[in-house]
Amino acid sequence: MKYDMEKQHKQGKLHALERICRILDQDSFREIGSGIKNLEDAFNIKKGQFPYDGVITGYGTVGGQRVMIYAQDFTVIGGTLGKQHGFKIANTIKLAIENRCPIIGINDSGGARIQEGINALAGYGEIFYYNTMASGYIPQISIIAGPCAGGAVYSPGITDFIFVIDDISQMFVTGPKVVKNVTNEEITANELGGAAVHSQTSGVAHFHMKDENSCFQKVRQLIGIIPPCYKDKNPALIPDQKINYTSDISFNESLAHILPEHSNQSYDIHDVIYGIVDRDSFLEVQEEFAKNVVIGFAKIKGITVGILSNQPKYLAGVLDCDSSDKLARFIRYCDSYDIPMITLTDVPGFLPGRDQEHKGIIRHGAKVLYAYSEATTTKINVILRKAYGGAYIAMSSKHLRADFVYAWPGAEIAVMGAEGAADILYGRQMKSLEPEERAAYRQEKIDEYNVKFMNPQTAVINGYVDEVIRPEATRERIYADLLMCACKHPIDRIEKKHGSIPL
Hints:
Blueprint lengths: L4 H5 L6 H8 L6 E3 L22 E8 L2 E8 L10 H16 L4 E5 L10 H17 L5 E5 L2 E3 L4 H5 L2 E5 L4 E3 L3 H8 L5 H5 L1 H7 L5 E3 L2 H14 L23 H4 L16 H8 L6 E3 L7 E8 L2 E8 L10 H16 L4 E7 L6 H6 L1 H14 L4 E10 H6 L9 E4 L4 E3 L3 H14 L3 H19 L3 H5 L5 E2 L5 H11 L19
Parallel strand pairs: 3-4, 4-5, 5-7, 6-8, 7-9, 12-13, 13-14, 14-15, 14-16, 15-17
Antiparallel strand pairs: 1-2, 2-3, 10-11, 11-12
């Protein structure tokens, strides 16, 4: 079959077939539905006019792992989606479900084929239905390799991971022309829905790549670390290393020196993550969005895990609306595939203020509580430093049924920080004192609160923390727990259709 590759190259883009071949293992692609063409005669379009109806579908392998794949061809009537086009994509997703393998979609389309009217919308409807059926059963990956507008954005929106590419990706429900007509606002396509917008501001995208080739390599890396289907065990998930109960000091000794001397000083949580997981295994998700939390996949002695952590380097690691959404969705993904979750907690609370309250921090924060509570996969929490108030509960606490909760020696587990607590508890007494006496009295009460409450001992006595562990022992302790929970089977389920998460 003849493909118009030069037309794409002139726009600085690869052709649909080239994209497929660069993602898949060499010579592994097998096309299906190549003979399908458009069926409609309307508005100067003839039946059978468009080869493969503008979308290439088939299957192949990525690192030996079977995948289904489709790529819209912008050189065929702008990659627009007609009935046959939509049904081809839907069938590809259906085959992925039936064969228990990931589905990769490459989106490069002008949207619904207006000439086909409601039949084009029917094509989208079929795709959305199978996207929803696949959710939580097989991984769904969307690559935005061109325009993606109108109804077309909702298929990627349902999928698990969205990749965007600089100077190529555009996603929006209504384009710049419609925005201009309706609101009289002048805005470019990139300003409205370019790669930076969706990776940094909207949070729609999970991976932001500089070019197509680096994007395809990242997709291959992702496929290599996540399970291919619910309950399927990737060989990489089978542990083959012994537990070192004395801890691997040579690998982890840096962990003992990461936390700064004072609790109000920041540090980079990545340094802790790198000291726990296998070297070069951490694959961060949504790196540029809601930076006050860090999420991603990694391996611990070959076992794939999900990492969820506060980031003291940004907003002191507080939880706000965006970071709560980021955490909750990742929790639910990991739980869908029984990927063990390692939570690294250093959180001073939820972000206060009018803006957050008006944006619905109650609703967004509740998503984290709900997601952790509902999750039945292995849940291990390490409290590194601060764990205050409701945010302490939200970050995979025992109260939300974490399997194991540990604390580093200097951890502070309390309702709030010592200064705020002293002001609330002794504020009335302070007002009656002279300024010099007031300062001394306040410091005395702060010190008293620190001694009594700003440590993990009360939590240990009550069983809310299982053990206080040395930082350098963290990796080995987590690995032992992963082996212990390998056959975990939850026993306290309530029979119901499903819960109602606070979306």
